[in-house]
Amino acid sequence: MCGIVGYTGHVQAAPILLDGLARLEYRGYDSAGLAVRNGSSPAEVVKAIGKLYHLADKTDQGRALPGTCGIGHTRWATHGDPSMVNAHPHVSGNCSGSGSGTVESDVVGVHNGIIENFTELKEKLLRHGYSFYSETDTEVVVKLVDYYYKKYKIGPVDAITRTMVRVRGSYALALMFKDYPEEIFVARKDSPLVIGTSEDASFLASDVPAILKFTRSVYYIDNLQVGRISPGSVKFYDLNGDEVQLPVTEITWDTAAAEKDGYEHFMLKEIHEQPKAIRETLGSLVREGKITLEETGLTEEMLRGISRIDIVACGSAWHVGMASQYVIEDLARIPVRVELASEYRYRSVPLAPDTLVIVISQSGETADSLAALRVAKERGAKTLAVVNVIGSTIAREADHTLYTLAGPEIAVATTKAYSAQLIAMDVLAVQLAAVRGIITEEQTAGYLAALEAIPDQIGRILEEKERLQWFSSKIANTHDIFFIGRGLDYAISLEGSLKMKEISYIHSEAYAAGELKHGTISLVEQNTLVIGVLTQGNLFEKTLSNMLECKSRGAYLMGLTTNGNFSVEDSVNFTVYVPKTDEHFLASLAIVPLQLLGYYTSVNRGLDVDKPRNLAKSVTVE
Ligand code: M6R
Questions:
Q1: CATH number (domain holding residue 60)
Q2: Which partner for 269 in 125, 263, 502, 541 could form a disulfide, CB atoms 3.0-4.6 Å apart?
């Protein structure tokens, strides 16, 4: 949901800002803009509609914009359509037009987040003589800062903190003030923001990969803090304007992790990185054959004391929750409910200290998941975050954090982070079962051996990807796809269906196979593609019958099952096999062909696989 960057130093800012925005484009790509200061001359603002290359072309890859201090933005529209006038940066001046060109304004800013009370604030500013050129909440917040700055004749930090106490919502804001030519001021609440410094330059961004090429020393600014950034140094302040010290974190992973590395798309690269993501996540949780959750702070005694688990998440992370529900209930015999974070946060779910609320999130910044975490904490439950992005808000606010080690995930459609989350939840399920005495040491060792074999098994599935590539070329013009399965296979279907629809734009739905005939089967007609997931022995025949009911009504069938179930070929038109493993863990294998199917279908349809329309990687608005 929008990406912001900033640079102040001694070399030309615009090419650095464009480079950073290119690495954040996954966060939004309907328009982009830059504002750059050249010494004490006014800011030059350039905006362009559409993907980032339009802005790069307009500025000759940044070379046409002189100046060593600047901010940039890539937008995912929330308030107002994607247009020049609504694109960021926004300016405080009462200008006509879109606020671009050389602007004499006192304050220029970019913003990621949502200001909920912007209408009320806009009315206040209108009464004080401000006028507005855009429909955005950002223009309002920039003008509010300007208003306090002039009314009280205070410095930027005080003007910003006054603004922060008036606005409701979420923001990562980066502002330049006319009177402070080499400085950028930032503020944060509930939207991600990192600050980096090198010897003689400083950087800011919504995400680490945007600045990693220039520095490895970063600060994670906290909620309701302000930063004053100058070349090579940064100071932080709390809401009272008092200076606070923040620790510097050295980033140890490599920029290569955020490059395509010869693959045509990030998604394909990330699909291939799944064995590594799983190995590393497992390696951090299982040492010398023993599960260790030490780093999460969850003790065996705590695990024994849990009487209910609520798993809360959004999108694919919610699908991980759906899969884990079957595994935890079956292995550890603890009741589990799986909730969409956007619903959970507004429900009056009664919680007790013996309830463990698990929030699963790749980004650790998803607005609804964060809100659900806070609700769970307020109501007295114990909270565990299963998060991929180190230092993210959800990771920092949860009582306990389990990091998945998938590395940076760039494609909007998640693959390796999903797989790392699944494995982490499987390990947790085994540990819950073990410490509660439900499974023996020998069984525990057996489950761990099965989990450890998964990376190589995924490698074998990937070796046969050409079959999926061929099949996807056959289905590329299909209008509707149904993914069906029961139990764990239903959870796999949910994720398979999302992978297909989000990047191929083919309408697709996932159904619990037995539920189809309660209404939805009326949509099945000649050649409707029905993909049945058949990995669970006790449910195999039931789901197959449901597939045949669809076939009788004209459906074209694909079956996804484990090696050895060859009889399925008598009933379906196309079969995909995955290796056998313990049935609890089959989601980790069965999802891979479905990811490939979604990927190749999107490629065959000529779509932008990594940046599908209307979506953003990190959903920091509710
Ligand atoms: O960062 P999170 O895991 O909290 O994101 C949750 C969803 O937005 C995310 O899983 C989304 O559904 C994926 N892009 C789907 O591929």
A1: 3.60.20.10
A2: 263
Kindly give the pairing relationship between strand 101-103 and strand 43-49. Answer: antiparallel
Q: How confident is the model at residue 321 (pLDDT cuts 50, 70, 90)?
A: very high
Q: What is the percent of the chain with per-residue pLDDT over 70, rounded to a whole number?
A: 98
- Among 319, 107, 72, 382, CA closest to 210: 72
Which of residues 251, 283, 301 is at a domain's end? 251
Q: What is the CATH number of the domain that holds 381?
A: 3.40.50.10490
* Per-residue pLDDT tens over the stretch 389-428: 988 899 999 999 999 999 989 999 999 999 999 999 999 9
User: Ligand 1 atom 8: the closest Cα is on which residue?
Assistant: 315
Q: Is 314 a catalytic residue?
A: no
622: in domain? no
Bond before 350 cis per omega within 30 degrees: no
- Cα-to-centroid distance, 319 and ligand 1 (Å): 10
Instruction: Please state, in angstroms and rounded to a whole number, the distance separating the CA atoms of residues 415 and 412.
Output: 9
Atom 11 of ligand 1: nearest residue by CA position = 315
Residue 258 falls within a domain, yes or no? no
Is there a single domain that holds both residue 481 and residue 567? yes
Query: What domain count does the chain have?
Result: 3
Residues 99 and 242 in one domain: yes
Question: Who lines ligand 1 at CB under 6 A?
Answer: 314-317, 361-363, 366, 369, 412-414, 498, 502, 618-619
User: Which one of the listed residues 2, 69, 314, 550 is annotated catalytic?
Assistant: 2
- Separation in Å, CA 405 to CA 150, 282, 345, 359: 47, 9, 27, 16
Where a domain ends, among 251, 281, 309? 251
CA 234 to centroid of ligand 1, rounded, Å: 32
Domain around 526: 465-604
Are 369 and 510 members of one domain? no
Regarding whether 391 and 355 lie in a shared domain, the answer is: yes
For residue 77, the tally of other CB atoms under 10 A from its CB is 18
Residue 472 alpha carbon to ligand 1 centre in Å: 24
Interacting residues of 557 by C-beta distance below 8 A, sequence separation 6+: 530, 531, 532, 547, 550, 551, 571, 572, 573, 574
Index of the ligand 1 atom closest to the CA of residue 313: 4
Q: Is residue 100 scored above 80 in pLDDT?
A: no
Residues 338 and 242 in one domain: no
**611: annotated active-site residue:** no
Would you place residue 161 in the very low, low, confident or very high pLDDT band (cuts 50, 70, 90)?
A: very high
Distance between CA atoms of 282 and 276, rounded to whole angstroms? 10
Residues 496 and 364 in one domain: no
Residues 179 and 141 in one domain: yes
Residue-wise pLDDT tens digits, 469-521: 999 999 999 999 999 999 999 999 999 999 999 999 999 999 999 998 898 88
Alpha carbon 279 to chain centroid, angstroms:
21
Same domain, 52 and 83: yes
Contacts of 614 (CB under 8 A, 6+ apart): none
What's the gap in Å between 343 CA and the centre of ligand 1? 16
Grade residue 84 by pLDDT with cuts at 50, 70 and 90: confident
Is the entire prediction scored with pTM above 0.85?
no
